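Q: I have 379 residues here and want to know how they pack in 3D. Can you give me a structure?
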Amino acid sequence: MESRRSTPTLVVAVLLASMIFGFGGAVVGAGTTYLLLRSAPAPSANESPLPTAVAPTIASVQVDTAVTETVDRVGPAVVTVVNHMRRQSNPFGGTSQPTASGSGVIIDPRGYLVTNNHVVEDSASLEVVLASGETRSARLVGSDAFADIAVLQVEGDLPTSASWGNSDDLQPGESVVAIGSPLGDFKNTVTVGVVSATGRSIETDSGFRMEDMIQTDAAINSGNSGGPLVSLAGQVIGINTLVVRGGGLSGNVAEGLGFAVSSNTASAIAQQLIDQGHVSRPYLGISWAWITPQVADANNLPVQQGVYLREVVAGGPAAEAGLRQGDILSAIGGVSLDDDHPFINVMLQHAPGDVVSVSYWRDGKALEANVRLGERPQA
Protein backbone atom coordinates (compact mmCIF):
# COMPACT_ATOMS: atom_id res chain seq x y z
CA MET A 1 0.00 0.00 0.00
CA GLU A 2 2.83 2.43 0.83
CA SER A 3 4.45 2.18 -2.60
CA ARG A 4 1.14 2.94 -4.35
CA ARG A 5 0.58 6.12 -2.31
CA SER A 6 4.06 7.45 -3.12
CA THR A 7 3.69 7.03 -6.87
CA PRO A 8 1.76 10.31 -7.48
CA THR A 9 4.43 12.19 -5.49
CA LEU A 10 7.15 10.81 -7.76
CA VAL A 11 5.15 11.72 -10.84
CA VAL A 12 4.80 15.32 -9.71
CA ALA A 13 8.50 15.51 -8.93
CA VAL A 14 9.42 14.21 -12.37
CA LEU A 15 7.05 16.67 -14.09
CA LEU A 16 8.53 19.56 -12.12
CA ALA A 17 11.98 18.48 -13.20
CA SER A 18 10.89 18.37 -16.81
CA MET A 19 9.65 21.97 -16.55
CA ILE A 20 12.97 23.09 -15.04
CA PHE A 21 15.23 21.42 -17.61
CA GLY A 22 13.29 22.45 -20.69
CA PHE A 23 12.00 20.56 -23.67
CA GLY A 24 14.52 17.75 -23.54
CA GLY A 25 13.80 17.25 -19.90
CA ALA A 26 10.11 17.22 -20.68
CA VAL A 27 10.59 14.34 -23.11
CA VAL A 28 12.61 12.35 -20.61
CA GLY A 29 10.21 13.22 -17.81
CA ALA A 30 7.22 12.16 -19.84
CA GLY A 31 8.84 8.82 -20.63
CA THR A 32 9.73 8.27 -16.99
CA THR A 33 6.22 9.13 -15.91
CA TYR A 34 4.82 6.60 -18.39
CA LEU A 35 7.09 3.85 -16.98
CA LEU A 36 6.17 4.70 -13.40
CA LEU A 37 2.48 4.60 -14.11
CA ARG A 38 2.81 1.37 -16.07
CA SER A 39 4.75 -0.33 -13.31
CA ALA A 40 2.42 0.82 -10.55
CA PRO A 41 0.28 -2.00 -9.17
CA ALA A 42 -3.41 -2.00 -9.98
CA PRO A 43 -5.62 -0.44 -7.25
CA SER A 44 -7.28 -2.78 -4.81
CA ALA A 45 -10.99 -3.19 -4.57
CA ASN A 46 -11.04 -0.64 -1.70
CA GLU A 47 -9.47 2.13 -3.79
CA SER A 48 -11.06 4.24 -6.53
CA PRO A 49 -9.74 3.56 -10.05
CA LEU A 50 -8.26 6.34 -12.15
CA PRO A 51 -10.96 8.34 -14.03
CA THR A 52 -11.64 7.20 -17.56
CA ALA A 53 -11.86 9.57 -20.54
CA VAL A 54 -15.34 10.75 -21.43
CA ALA A 55 -16.28 11.26 -25.08
CA PRO A 56 -17.24 14.94 -25.74
CA THR A 57 -20.90 15.69 -26.44
CA ILE A 58 -22.03 18.11 -29.15
CA ALA A 59 -24.94 20.34 -28.22
CA SER A 60 -27.75 20.50 -30.76
CA VAL A 61 -27.95 23.84 -32.64
CA GLN A 62 -31.26 25.58 -33.33
CA VAL A 63 -31.00 26.62 -36.99
CA ASP A 64 -34.16 28.73 -37.09
CA THR A 65 -33.25 32.13 -35.68
CA ALA A 66 -35.34 35.26 -35.28
CA VAL A 67 -33.80 36.64 -38.48
CA THR A 68 -34.54 33.59 -40.62
CA GLU A 69 -38.06 33.38 -39.23
CA THR A 70 -38.58 37.05 -40.11
CA VAL A 71 -37.29 36.50 -43.64
CA ASP A 72 -39.48 33.41 -44.05
CA ARG A 73 -42.51 35.46 -43.04
CA VAL A 74 -41.93 38.68 -44.99
CA GLY A 75 -39.64 37.57 -47.84
CA PRO A 76 -42.41 36.13 -50.05
CA ALA A 77 -44.20 39.51 -49.93
CA VAL A 78 -41.17 41.41 -51.29
CA VAL A 79 -41.12 42.16 -55.02
CA THR A 80 -38.87 43.77 -57.60
CA VAL A 81 -40.47 46.76 -59.33
CA VAL A 82 -39.50 47.32 -62.98
CA ASN A 83 -40.22 50.78 -64.41
CA HIS A 84 -40.38 51.01 -68.21
CA MET A 85 -40.01 54.77 -68.47
CA ARG A 86 -41.39 57.13 -71.08
CA ARG A 87 -39.50 57.31 -74.32
CA GLN A 88 -36.74 59.90 -74.46
CA SER A 89 -35.06 61.57 -77.41
CA ASN A 90 -31.36 61.00 -77.94
CA PRO A 91 -28.78 63.29 -79.61
CA PHE A 92 -28.89 61.22 -82.83
CA GLY A 93 -32.54 61.90 -83.54
CA GLY A 94 -33.90 58.60 -82.28
CA THR A 95 -35.70 57.64 -79.10
CA SER A 96 -35.06 55.15 -76.35
CA GLN A 97 -37.08 53.74 -73.50
CA PRO A 98 -34.92 53.51 -70.38
CA THR A 99 -35.71 51.02 -67.66
CA ALA A 100 -35.25 51.50 -63.92
CA SER A 101 -35.89 49.15 -61.03
CA GLY A 102 -36.48 49.15 -57.32
CA SER A 103 -38.20 47.09 -54.67
CA GLY A 104 -41.62 46.92 -53.07
CA VAL A 105 -43.66 45.01 -50.52
CA ILE A 106 -47.20 43.61 -50.76
CA ILE A 107 -49.24 45.12 -47.91
CA ASP A 108 -52.77 44.04 -48.83
CA PRO A 109 -54.13 40.70 -50.12
CA ARG A 110 -56.15 42.67 -52.70
CA GLY A 111 -52.88 43.14 -54.59
CA TYR A 112 -51.74 46.52 -53.25
CA LEU A 113 -48.03 47.00 -52.75
CA VAL A 114 -45.95 49.92 -51.52
CA THR A 115 -42.76 51.28 -53.06
CA ASN A 116 -41.05 54.66 -53.44
CA ASN A 117 -42.38 57.46 -55.63
CA HIS A 118 -38.93 57.89 -57.19
CA VAL A 119 -38.97 54.23 -58.27
CA VAL A 120 -42.06 54.74 -60.44
CA GLU A 121 -41.54 58.32 -61.66
CA ASP A 122 -41.94 58.94 -65.40
CA SER A 123 -43.31 55.43 -65.94
CA ALA A 124 -44.94 54.38 -69.19
CA SER A 125 -45.66 50.90 -67.80
CA LEU A 126 -44.81 48.96 -64.67
CA GLU A 127 -44.08 45.35 -63.87
CA VAL A 128 -43.34 43.49 -60.66
CA VAL A 129 -41.30 40.32 -60.24
CA LEU A 130 -42.56 38.17 -57.38
CA ALA A 131 -40.21 36.34 -55.03
CA SER A 132 -41.00 33.17 -57.00
CA GLY A 133 -39.63 34.80 -60.17
CA GLU A 134 -43.05 35.25 -61.79
CA THR A 135 -43.48 38.59 -63.60
CA ARG A 136 -46.79 40.45 -63.60
CA SER A 137 -47.96 43.79 -64.94
CA ALA A 138 -48.89 46.43 -62.39
CA ARG A 139 -50.85 49.67 -62.40
CA LEU A 140 -49.99 52.83 -60.50
CA VAL A 141 -52.71 53.57 -57.95
CA GLY A 142 -51.17 56.83 -56.78
CA SER A 143 -47.98 58.43 -55.51
CA ASP A 144 -46.83 61.22 -53.22
CA ALA A 145 -43.53 62.96 -53.93
CA PHE A 146 -43.28 64.61 -50.51
CA ALA A 147 -43.33 61.32 -48.58
CA ASP A 148 -41.67 59.43 -51.50
CA ILE A 149 -44.37 56.76 -51.31
CA ALA A 150 -46.29 55.11 -54.16
CA VAL A 151 -48.89 52.34 -54.29
CA LEU A 152 -49.18 49.80 -57.12
CA GLN A 153 -51.70 47.03 -57.67
CA VAL A 154 -51.28 43.65 -59.34
CA GLU A 155 -53.99 41.20 -60.33
CA GLY A 156 -54.33 37.56 -59.36
CA ASP A 157 -53.51 35.45 -56.35
CA LEU A 158 -50.50 36.50 -54.31
CA PRO A 159 -48.26 34.38 -52.09
CA THR A 160 -48.77 36.52 -48.97
CA SER A 161 -48.89 40.08 -47.67
CA ALA A 162 -46.86 41.78 -44.95
CA SER A 163 -48.28 43.66 -41.99
CA TRP A 164 -47.38 47.13 -40.73
CA GLY A 165 -45.67 47.63 -37.39
CA ASN A 166 -45.72 50.69 -35.13
CA SER A 167 -42.60 52.73 -35.88
CA ASP A 168 -43.20 54.88 -32.78
CA ASP A 169 -42.18 51.87 -30.67
CA LEU A 170 -38.72 51.55 -32.26
CA GLN A 171 -35.65 51.96 -30.07
CA PRO A 172 -32.07 52.73 -31.18
CA GLY A 173 -30.10 49.49 -31.18
CA GLU A 174 -33.08 47.33 -32.11
CA SER A 175 -32.24 44.71 -34.74
CA VAL A 176 -33.87 45.13 -38.16
CA VAL A 177 -33.79 43.35 -41.52
CA ALA A 178 -33.80 45.02 -44.95
CA ILE A 179 -35.07 43.01 -47.94
CA GLY A 180 -34.88 44.18 -51.53
CA SER A 181 -33.25 43.88 -54.93
CA PRO A 182 -29.98 45.86 -54.97
CA LEU A 183 -28.92 46.90 -58.46
CA GLY A 184 -32.06 45.19 -59.74
CA ASP A 185 -30.18 41.92 -60.21
CA PHE A 186 -29.79 40.42 -56.74
CA LYS A 187 -33.45 39.82 -56.01
CA ASN A 188 -34.71 39.49 -52.43
CA THR A 189 -31.33 40.15 -50.87
CA VAL A 190 -31.37 40.17 -47.07
CA THR A 191 -29.19 42.50 -44.98
CA VAL A 192 -29.24 42.86 -41.22
CA GLY A 193 -28.48 45.84 -38.99
CA VAL A 194 -29.89 47.94 -36.20
CA VAL A 195 -31.99 51.05 -35.82
CA SER A 196 -29.28 53.70 -35.58
CA ALA A 197 -31.70 56.52 -34.76
CA THR A 198 -35.30 57.63 -35.20
CA GLY A 199 -36.88 60.98 -36.02
CA ARG A 200 -34.19 61.99 -38.52
CA SER A 201 -34.78 64.66 -41.17
CA ILE A 202 -33.08 64.60 -44.59
CA GLU A 203 -32.69 67.58 -46.90
CA THR A 204 -33.88 66.94 -50.46
CA ASP A 205 -33.08 68.59 -53.77
CA SER A 206 -36.65 69.93 -53.97
CA GLY A 207 -36.40 72.47 -51.17
CA PHE A 208 -37.95 70.52 -48.31
CA ARG A 209 -36.97 67.96 -45.71
CA MET A 210 -38.20 64.43 -45.37
CA GLU A 211 -38.99 64.10 -41.68
CA ASP A 212 -39.50 61.35 -39.11
CA MET A 213 -37.05 59.10 -40.97
CA ILE A 214 -35.55 55.90 -39.53
CA GLN A 215 -31.76 55.67 -39.74
CA THR A 216 -30.25 52.18 -40.05
CA ASP A 217 -26.86 50.62 -40.72
CA ALA A 218 -28.40 47.68 -42.58
CA ALA A 219 -26.82 47.71 -46.05
CA ILE A 220 -29.03 49.57 -48.54
CA ASN A 221 -28.00 50.07 -52.16
CA SER A 222 -29.48 51.28 -55.41
CA GLY A 223 -32.43 49.00 -56.12
CA ASN A 224 -33.29 48.54 -52.44
CA SER A 225 -35.48 51.65 -52.67
CA GLY A 226 -39.09 50.81 -51.85
CA GLY A 227 -38.27 47.57 -50.06
CA PRO A 228 -39.28 46.93 -46.46
CA LEU A 229 -37.31 47.50 -43.29
CA VAL A 230 -38.60 44.78 -40.98
CA SER A 231 -38.53 44.26 -37.22
CA LEU A 232 -37.76 40.87 -35.72
CA ALA A 233 -41.46 40.63 -34.93
CA GLY A 234 -41.92 40.18 -38.69
CA GLN A 235 -43.61 43.56 -39.24
CA VAL A 236 -42.77 46.31 -41.73
CA ILE A 237 -41.56 49.29 -39.71
CA GLY A 238 -40.17 51.33 -42.62
CA ILE A 239 -39.85 51.68 -46.39
CA ASN A 240 -36.20 51.94 -47.43
CA THR A 241 -35.70 55.16 -49.36
CA LEU A 242 -32.13 56.40 -49.60
CA VAL A 243 -28.55 56.03 -48.45
CA VAL A 244 -26.06 58.80 -47.71
CA ARG A 245 -22.52 58.18 -48.95
CA GLY A 246 -21.04 61.54 -47.96
CA GLY A 247 -18.89 63.48 -50.37
CA GLY A 248 -19.58 67.14 -51.10
CA LEU A 249 -16.98 69.79 -50.29
CA SER A 250 -15.55 67.79 -47.39
CA GLY A 251 -14.84 64.74 -49.52
CA ASN A 252 -15.73 62.49 -46.59
CA VAL A 253 -17.18 59.09 -47.44
CA ALA A 254 -19.72 57.53 -45.07
CA GLU A 255 -20.89 53.95 -44.74
CA GLY A 256 -23.94 52.50 -43.02
CA LEU A 257 -26.15 55.60 -43.34
CA GLY A 258 -29.41 54.26 -44.71
CA PHE A 259 -32.81 55.87 -44.22
CA ALA A 260 -36.37 54.61 -44.37
CA VAL A 261 -39.78 56.29 -44.30
CA SER A 262 -41.34 55.34 -40.97
CA SER A 263 -44.17 52.81 -41.18
CA ASN A 264 -46.64 55.14 -39.46
CA THR A 265 -46.07 57.75 -42.18
CA ALA A 266 -45.93 55.23 -45.04
CA SER A 267 -49.08 53.39 -43.98
CA ALA A 268 -51.10 56.60 -43.60
CA ILE A 269 -49.98 57.84 -47.03
CA ALA A 270 -50.59 54.44 -48.62
CA GLN A 271 -54.12 54.29 -47.21
CA GLN A 272 -54.98 57.71 -48.68
CA LEU A 273 -53.60 56.62 -52.05
CA ILE A 274 -55.70 53.44 -51.96
CA ASP A 275 -58.84 55.28 -50.85
CA GLN A 276 -58.70 58.30 -53.17
CA GLY A 277 -55.74 57.88 -55.52
CA HIS A 278 -53.89 60.90 -54.15
CA VAL A 279 -52.85 62.61 -50.93
CA SER A 280 -54.55 65.88 -50.04
CA ARG A 281 -51.84 68.51 -49.73
CA PRO A 282 -52.29 72.25 -48.99
CA TYR A 283 -51.94 74.73 -51.85
CA LEU A 284 -51.05 78.43 -51.71
CA GLY A 285 -51.03 79.14 -55.45
CA ILE A 286 -47.59 80.67 -55.88
CA SER A 287 -44.31 80.20 -57.72
CA TRP A 288 -41.47 80.96 -55.35
CA ALA A 289 -37.73 81.15 -54.69
CA TRP A 290 -35.94 80.53 -51.41
CA ILE A 291 -34.06 83.49 -49.91
CA THR A 292 -30.73 82.67 -48.29
CA PRO A 293 -28.69 85.05 -46.08
CA GLN A 294 -26.29 85.58 -48.99
CA VAL A 295 -29.14 86.56 -51.33
CA ALA A 296 -30.64 88.80 -48.63
CA ASP A 297 -27.35 90.63 -48.03
CA ALA A 298 -26.65 91.04 -51.76
CA ASN A 299 -30.11 92.56 -52.39
CA ASN A 300 -30.55 94.45 -49.12
CA LEU A 301 -33.71 92.51 -48.25
CA PRO A 302 -35.57 93.08 -44.96
CA VAL A 303 -35.28 89.38 -43.90
CA GLN A 304 -32.38 86.94 -43.88
CA GLN A 305 -34.52 83.99 -44.93
CA GLY A 306 -37.94 83.56 -46.45
CA VAL A 307 -39.86 82.99 -49.67
CA TYR A 308 -39.85 85.43 -52.60
CA LEU A 309 -43.07 85.30 -54.63
CA ARG A 310 -42.06 85.10 -58.29
CA GLU A 311 -45.64 84.53 -59.40
CA VAL A 312 -49.06 84.54 -57.78
CA VAL A 313 -51.65 82.38 -59.55
CA ALA A 314 -54.74 84.36 -60.45
CA GLY A 315 -57.74 83.20 -58.45
CA GLY A 316 -55.56 81.09 -56.13
CA PRO A 317 -55.55 81.23 -52.33
CA ALA A 318 -52.64 83.70 -52.11
CA ALA A 319 -54.17 86.02 -54.72
CA GLU A 320 -57.54 85.91 -52.94
CA ALA A 321 -55.79 87.02 -49.73
CA GLY A 322 -54.19 90.00 -51.46
CA LEU A 323 -50.63 88.71 -51.90
CA ARG A 324 -48.77 89.94 -54.98
CA GLN A 325 -45.69 89.14 -57.03
CA GLY A 326 -42.58 90.48 -55.28
CA ASP A 327 -43.89 89.98 -51.75
CA ILE A 328 -41.60 88.14 -49.32
CA LEU A 329 -43.15 85.59 -46.98
CA SER A 330 -41.40 85.42 -43.59
CA ALA A 331 -43.80 83.23 -41.55
CA ILE A 332 -46.82 80.95 -41.98
CA GLY A 333 -49.12 80.15 -39.09
CA GLY A 334 -46.74 81.89 -36.71
CA VAL A 335 -43.77 79.71 -37.73
CA SER A 336 -40.79 81.65 -39.10
CA LEU A 337 -39.38 80.33 -42.36
CA ASP A 338 -35.72 79.34 -41.98
CA ASP A 339 -33.33 76.42 -42.42
CA ASP A 340 -35.01 74.51 -39.61
CA HIS A 341 -38.49 75.28 -40.96
CA PRO A 342 -38.44 75.10 -44.79
CA PHE A 343 -41.44 76.53 -46.61
CA ILE A 344 -42.90 73.23 -47.82
CA ASN A 345 -42.49 71.53 -44.44
CA VAL A 346 -44.34 74.38 -42.73
CA MET A 347 -47.07 74.18 -45.35
CA LEU A 348 -47.40 70.41 -44.86
CA GLN A 349 -48.30 70.99 -41.22
CA HIS A 350 -51.67 72.28 -42.48
CA ALA A 351 -54.50 70.79 -44.51
CA PRO A 352 -56.59 72.08 -47.41
CA GLY A 353 -59.32 74.36 -46.06
CA ASP A 354 -57.27 75.62 -43.09
CA VAL A 355 -57.14 79.38 -42.58
CA VAL A 356 -53.59 80.40 -41.68
CA SER A 357 -51.95 83.73 -40.94
CA VAL A 358 -49.17 84.75 -43.33
CA SER A 359 -46.52 87.32 -42.40
CA TYR A 360 -44.92 89.06 -45.37
CA TRP A 361 -42.95 92.10 -46.47
CA ARG A 362 -43.91 94.56 -49.20
CA ASP A 363 -42.01 97.76 -50.03
CA GLY A 364 -40.14 97.57 -46.74
CA LYS A 365 -43.27 97.18 -44.61
CA ALA A 366 -44.22 94.16 -42.50
CA LEU A 367 -47.78 93.03 -43.24
CA GLU A 368 -50.09 90.12 -42.40
CA ALA A 369 -52.94 88.34 -44.15
CA ASN A 370 -55.19 85.37 -43.52
CA VAL A 371 -55.19 82.76 -46.28
CA ARG A 372 -57.62 79.87 -46.75
CA LEU A 373 -55.46 77.10 -48.17
CA GLY A 374 -56.63 75.21 -51.23
CA GLU A 375 -55.85 71.64 -52.30
CA ARG A 376 -52.80 71.05 -54.44
CA PRO A 377 -53.89 70.16 -58.00
CA GLN A 378 -53.12 66.60 -59.07
CA ALA A 379 -50.57 66.19 -61.84
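Q: Anything worth noting?
A: The longest helix spans residues 2-20. The CA atoms of residues 205 and 306 lie 17 Å apart.
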